[in-house]
Design goal:
It holds the Pfam family SirB. The protein is mainly α. The protein folds into two domains: 1-65; 68-133. The chain has helices at residues 3-29, 38-61, 70-90, 96-119, 125-130. α1 (3-29) packs antiparallel against α4 (96-119) and α3 (70-90) runs antiparallel to α4. The N and C termini lie far apart (34 Å).
Length: 133
C-alpha cells in the first residue's frame, strides 16, 4: 500500500477512535451501562488497533523509520498522556468532576496530537499559526 493509502486509513481510524472515546466518555458521565458492554469495548479496541496499524504503515512508507522525527516522538509521548487521561475519564470509581476534567484535557491533548501531525512540528497548530506566508 502507498503512503497515501496508509494516510487515509490513519485519518479514518483517528476520526473513529476519537469519536468512540468521546461518545463513551459522555455516556459514562451519564451513567449509561452500555459503555461497559463487551461489544462497545471491542469496537474501541478494534478502532485503536487499526489506528496503530495504519500509523506504523504510514511511518514505514514515509521513511520515518529508523530515524524518527522529533515531532513524531513528541506525538507518541502525547499519545501516552492521552491514553492515561482517557482511562481516568472513563473510570467509574473516580469523582465525576475529575472525570469531566480528564476527558476535556484528553480531547485537548488529542487536538494537539493532530496539530503536531499536520504541522510536522511538536508545537502543532501553534507552530502553524505562527508562520507567515
Amino acid at each position: 500500500m502507498t503512503s497515501l493509502g496508509w494516510w487515509w486509513w490513519h485519518l479514518a481510524a483517528v476520526t473513529t477512535s476519537l469519536s468512540c472515546f468521546t461518545v463513551r466518555w459522555v455516556a459514562a458521565l451519564l451513567g449509561r451501562p452500555w459503555v461497559w458492554a463487551r461489544t462497545t469495548r471491542a469496537a474501541a479496541v478494534l478502532a485503536d488497533s487499526v489506528l496503530l496499524m495504519a500509523g506504523v504503515g504510514l511511518m514505514l512508507t514515509r521513511g520515518w523509520w529508523p530515524t524518527v522525527p522529533v515531532w513524531l516522538w513528541f506525538k507518541w509521548c502525547l499519545l501516552v498522556l492521552y491514553i492515561m487521561l482517557g482511562h481516568l475519564a472513563l473510570r467509574t470509581t473516580v469523582p465525576a468532576r475529575t472525570r469531566v476534567l480528564a476527558g476535556v484535557v484528553a480531547l485537548v491533548v488529542a487536538a494537539h496530537i493532530v496539530g503536531a501531525a499536520v504541522a510536522h512540528h511538536p508545537a502543532g497548530f501553534w507552530f502553524a499559526a505562527g508562520r507567515t506566508g
